[in-house]
Design a protein that fits this description.
- By secondary structure, the protein is α/β, with parallel strands linked by helices.
- The protein has a single domain, classed as TIM Barrel, CATH 3.20.20.
- The chain is about 45% helix and about 15% strand.
- The chain has twelve helices and eight strands.
- The protein has helices at about 15-25, 45-55, 80-85, 95-100, 105-120, 130-135, 140-150, 155-160, 180-195, 200-205, 220-225, 240-255, and strands at about 5-10, 35-40, 60-65, 90-95, 120-125, 165, 210, 230-235.
- An eight-stranded parallel β-barrel has the order 1-2-3-4-5-6-7-8, surrounded by five helices.
- Helix 7 (about 140-150) crosses helix 9 (about 180-195).
- Bound molecules: 2-phosphoglycolic acid.
Length: about 260
């Protein structure tokens, strides 16, 4: 069974002092069972401040973006080497906000995915269609295009080291979450795509998450679906109580399955 994954994407929220307070309030750390891989993705400014406290709680640290080069004249950018030194094990790449607001395209995201793998950071690749694209019946086609462009050149070994999050753009931060069936179907489609591109056995090893208005009230429904390996959580990850509850729900799914 694939290990459940819960990511807390804080986006451009939480100052260093707010982040510290979040951790102080993160009670019952024993809830963070070894059965769930839990990663918090704070803004760059809080990485160092959270590093030790997170590890003590069995939580890993991730970044929300990175440049593909190790160093150089790229004003305003952060390199994978800097992320490693700050204690990051994971990095979100291709989030729809990066694609939509900052114009990131698949070829650029592909360069970042390859660079992260090379540096030993686990990329969490986000893909997903817009509301319009879904309405036109193009959801699968768009996701396949994004997969093809963002994963170009990756070997079988590489792909098993990538996490994929299906995040329909219309469900992010809107409270309009995808139904469990729709999310499960799209994730099954992504796995099928991986099976064709690589092989079915390799596809079974890749963890695929759902993201888009997941909260402590609806998480159990998603985690009960056999195709959904966890969630990338935005808004609800800013509340320590809700976030802890979601991780606990994911841990319970694993215990149930044993
Ligand atoms: P949301 O964000 O949970 O607030 O919808 C998810 C994401 O952007 O990863």
């Amino acid at each position: 069974m694939r290990k459940p994954f819960i990511g807390g994407n804080w986006k451009m929220n939480m100052t260093i002092s707010e982040a510290r307070e979040f951790l102080l309030n993160l009670q019952n750390v024993d809830l963070f069972s070894k059965n769930v891989e839990t990663v918090i993705f704070p803004p760059f400014t809080s990485l160092n401040a959270l590093k030790v406290a997170l590890v003590e709680r069995g939580i890993k640290l991730g970044a929300q973006n990175m440049h593909w080069e190790k160093a150089g004249a790229f004003t305003g950018e952060i390199s994978p080497v800097m992320l490693m030194e700050s204690g990051c094990t994971h990095v979100i790449l291709g989030h729809s906000e990066r694609r939509r607001i900052f114009g990131e395209e698949d070829s650029l995201i592909n360069a970042k995915v390859c660079s992260a793998l090379k540096q030993g950071i686990t990329p969490l690749l986000c893909i997903g269609e817009s509301k319009e694209e879904r309405g036109q019946g193009y959801a699968r086609r768009i996701c396949a295009q994004q997969l093809e462009g963002s994963l170009e050149g990756l070997s079988e070994k590489d792909i098993t080291g990538v996490l994929i999050a299906y995040e329909p753009v219309w469900a992010i931060g809107t409270g309009e979450n995808a139904t469990v069936n729709d999310a499960g179907e799209m994730i099954a489609f992504i796995r099928q795509w991986l099976g064709k591109e690589y092989d079915p056995e390799t596809a079974q090893k890749v963890r695929i998450l759902y993201g888009g208005s997941v909260n402590s009230a609806n998480a159990a429904l998603y985690f009960a679906h056999p195709e959904i390996d966890g969630a990338l959580i935005g808004g609800a990850s800013l509340n320590s109580e809700h976030f802890a509850k979601i991780v606990k729900i994911a841990a319970r799914r694993k215990e149930d399955a044993i």
